[in-house]
Write a structure and sequence with these properties.
Elements lengths: L2 H26 L6 H24 L10 H25 L7 H30 L2 E6 L2 H14 L4 E8 L13 E4 L3 H8 L3 E4 L5 H13 L3 E4 L3 H6 L3 E2 L8 E2 L3 H5 L2 H32 L6 E7 L5 E7 L24 H9 L6 H7 L3 E3 L6 H10 L12 E3 L1 H5 L6 H14 L2 H14 L8
Parallel strand pairs: 1-2, 1-4, 2-3, 4-5, 10-11
Antiparallel strand pairs: 6-7, 8-9
Helix pairs in contact: 1-2, 1-4, 2-3, 3-4, 3-16, 10-11, 10-12
């Protein structure tokens, strides 16, 4: 999408938001705009516009992405809700009491209607005009076919895989007419014939082969999407520091990048503030758990692996039947886990079961943002299977993280590790705040990350 189209997109959003205020005023004052009240709005309008731009940016709505409508709509709800709270706060700080609170409430409803209608029409138009993003996948057969399934099974409206370029085409798939298959050496011919909008390179393509094939794709004017290897992720955020004329990148240690005094200060202050409204919710939820499962504890304490490999005790509201792993041993939870209780299903869907972890944050065991901590049993297993998995323990574990806002419940552990390391290379106060706010929209989507 061109720069002017992006500008038009944001202007459309701002028009919808301010139209909401205008119509709310007209409804509140029965078709008139009293000068005193309207001047209060004009005084606040520039600040409301800045707040709107900030929230649109936080939820990645200023730059169109390939998203489902549900993801866009949940982000719009968060933008309107945050703008509503910002408006009330600004009105109080600037003492513009002539801006009625009822107008803020009414405007929020209208803004959501206007924004959703505008964005839905735009989303539908883009899909009809451009269709799904046509991709060519390059990589060994096992990973390439897995990535194809990830893209087409869950996002058929958004992505279309036109072909797979692999090292060796399996004999039983050579007659497959549903997709174009080719070997690495045939990439230029396939690009010319299929004209994909992008080429997705799998992480397991040998490094020299990947460099050669990427150069060919770029030379033919095709966009390249790269699933990063460990060394690619470590290079993220690196700075060029020539050594006596030798071109070299300096890669900082993960502790230098992702852990600072600001992080602990933010965690402690935010946990302290949230503990007040969270406490009655936790107590009511604990009572519901006890009533649903008499005789069983309301809280569940479990060992998890934190920063530096240190084991700590994580506390949650119990969502499963008592002794859920008595016969099976340690088992990862699934989306529709049959071990969930009736109350537990609701608590997990709303993430209320995670609220007691505010105590872990206050104690310093956890942060608000970071890799989700796993149990020692699964950590030892994943460290054997996934190269570099231990690197996530250089960071404080978090209640939420980049893997949770970008991934899905079914995202494989190796992809979650990629998100965790990418976060480590870009961690900052603003990044943490953005991830925390984006988590609010993720909570509305059942199939997003746990």
């Amino acid at each position: 999408m061109s720069r002017w189209m992006r500008v038009a997109l944001v202007l459309g959003d701002l028009i919808c938001l301010h139209l909401g205020y205008l119509v709310a005023f007209l409804l509140r004052f029965r078709g008139s705009l009293p000068p005193e009240n309207w001047s209060a709005y004009l005084e606040l309008a520039p600040w409301l516009t800045l707040a709107a731009l900030l929230f649109l940016y936080v939820y990645s709505l200023t730059l169109p992405r390939r998203q489902r409508w549900a993801e866009i709509f949940s982000s719009l709800i968060c933008v309107v809700a945050l703008l509503f709270l910002s408006g009330l706060s600004l009105s109080y700080i600037m003492q513009t009491y002539a801006f009625p609170r009822s107008v803020f409430f009414l405007a929020a409803v209208l803004q959501l209607v206007f924004l959703a209608s505008w964005r839905r029409a735009l989303w539908t138009w883009i899909l009809r005009r451009h269709g799904p993003l046509a991709l060519l996948i390059v990589g060994p057969w096992d990973e390439a076919s897995k990535r194809r399934e990830q893209l087409e099974k869950h996002r058929p409206l958004l992505f279309q895989v036109r072909g797979i370029v692999t090292d060796t085409v399996p004999p039983d798939r050579r007659e497959d007419s549903s997709i174009s298959l080719a070997t690495y050496d045939e990439l230029p011919v396939v690009l010319e014939r299929l004209q994909p909008e992008g080429v997705l390179f799998c992480s397991s393509v040998p490094l020299e082969e990947r460099s050669r094939l990427m150069a060919k794709a770029v030379a033919q004017g095709t966009s390249v999407f790269l699933i990063p290897r460990l060394e690619d992720l470590l290079l993220a955020g690196a700075s060029m520091e020539p050594l006596n004329g030798i071109p070299a990148f300096r890669i900082l240690g993960l502790q230098e990048m992702a852990v600072g005094g600001w992080k602990r200060l933010l965690d402690f202050a935010l946990a302290l503030v949230l503990a007040v409204p969270a406490l009655p919710i936790i107590l009511l939820a604990a009572l519901a758990v006890k009533l649903d499962s008499p005789g069983a504890p309301a809280f569940y304490v479990q060992e998890r692996v934190g920063r530096g490999g240190r084991v700590f005790r994580l506390i949650k509201l119990r969502t499963m039947v008592p002794e859920a792993e008595k016969d099976t041993g340690p088992v990862l939870a699934t989306r529709d886990d049959p071990r969930l209780t009736r109350v537990g299903r609701f608590l997990r869907a709303t993430r209320i079961d995670e609220l007691p972890q505010l105590w872990n944050v206050l104690k310093g065991d956890m942060s608000f943002v970071g890799p989700r901590p796993e149990r020692p049993f699964f950590v030892s297993q994943l460290e054997r299977e996934i190269p570099g998995y231990y690197l996530r323990h250089c960071l404080p574990p978090g209640i939420t993280g980049l893997a949770q806002v970008e991934g899905e419940y079914s995202t494989p552990p190796e992809d979650k590790l990629r998100y965790d390391l990418l976060y480590a290379r870009s961690a900052s106060l603003l990044t943490d705040l953005r991830i925390i706010l984006r988590t609010l929209s993720v909570m509305m989507l059942r199939d997003k990350a746990s």
